[in-house]
Amino acid sequence: MPFPSATNPAYSFRCHSEGVVCPRNLLHLFTLATLAFLFVGAFSFPASAKDRHLKKFFSEIVVMPSGSIDVTENITMQFVGGPWHGINRYIPVEYYGPRGLNYTLFLDVKDITDETGAKLRYETSRERHYLNLKIFIPNADNTTRTISIHYTVSDALKFFDDHDEFYWNVTGDEWSIPIESAGAHIVFPDGASNLRAKAFTGAYRSTGRDADVQVSGTGVDVQTRDPLPLHEGLTIAVAFDKGAVREPTALSRLLLYLRSNWPLFIPIIAFFAMFWWWWTTAETRASAPSPPNISRLIIFLPAKSAPSSTIPSTCATSPPPSSISPSAATSSSKKQSKTISSA
Fold it and tell me: Which of 78, 229, 329, 331 gets the most CB atoms within 10 Å of its CB?
């Protein structure tokens, strides 16, 4: 009698006819139950996922009469799950200027604090045209924290013949998560007049206008209408009449130009360094003995001795001793003796 199995036609017919659950059906049921468990489990535990949300980005900017600006960025982050150790803030500091040259913003970080005013540890580095602030936030898991970044910029204003301008990328465009709300409040010196402001939203070089701008006296407020998708930001441009801030001198502009494009001057610095070395060592080189004229040197090499013959003595031009018969040798000696005696 064959062993009952799922491949046995008789056994399979018996399973279907008598309502018995076959092993093959059990395998199908187990597979379906496993898939259903995985599908339900993927949506049953969202709280255990690791995620973060940028709830609000708001900047407070003060334009100083000296031409520098004072910036305080308040970034509210919600951390879900963990572990979370901090955030990275990428601030664009290098732009293309006229004639293909660089225009660099010189930024000085004063401090970085949390919502309680406690200072946070941070590290700075340059990545492409951004200044990267790596900010460490302790105990960030499953919390909502506000990070305040305070810094100054010495050359954020642009000066034209008929007006001055403040052009500023408020949020940056390197956030890998959406910004739910972004805004800024800019305060100009008391003498600023005829303020005209525009706001732009979107990716780099975008001309989107999804933000509201309000000018009140010497202050400007800007606020986005909708969340900013990832890698999109908020930029503000404010023009005002000349005279409110001190315009840099020609020497100051030259120094800023040199600081922004210092690699171009490495060959010039190398040239003057070599010229200075040549000038300061002229007397030393003049008093040093002149080197011999190599073209008139005659090099005498000792004569080489002739190499010793490698031919064995038995191979000399004279016949070998074995080729001379004893009688011939005797007669030769007699002739030699006669010759001596006759002499």
Answer: 78
pLDDT along the chain (343 residues), means of 10: 48 47 58 63 56 97 96 98 95 76 86 97 93 96 97 94 96 95 97 96 90 97 97 96 89 67 66 79 70 55 52 43 45 45 41
Q: Is the peptide bond before 83 cis (omega within 30 degrees of 0)?
A: yes
DSSP SS3 for 111: strand
DSSP-derived 3-state class of residue 103 = strand
Kindly report, residue by residue over 218-270, the tens digit of the pLDDT: 999 999 999 999 999 999 999 999 999 999 877 767 666 666 555 555 777 77
Q: Could you tell me if 149 and 107 are in contact, meaning their C-beta atoms sit under 8 angstroms apart?
A: no
> Per DSSP, what are the bridge partners of residue 216?
219
Concatenating the DSSP letter of every residue in 50-79 gives -EEEEEEEEEEEEE-TTS-EEEEEEEEEEE
3-class DSSP assignment, residue 174: coil
**Burial track 160-199 (b if 16+ CB lie within 10 A, e otherwise):** eeeebebebbbbbbbbeeebbbbbbebbbbeebeebebeb
Tell me which residue has tokens 């492409």: 128
Instruction: Report d(CA 170, CA 153) in Å as an integer.
Output: 13
Q: What is the pLDDT of residues 7-50, one digit of tens each?
A: 454 444 445 444 454 555 656 666 766 666 565 554 544 445 89
Length of the chain counted residue by residue:
343
Tell me which amino acid residue 240 is: F
86 contacts 167 by C-beta, under 8 angstroms: no
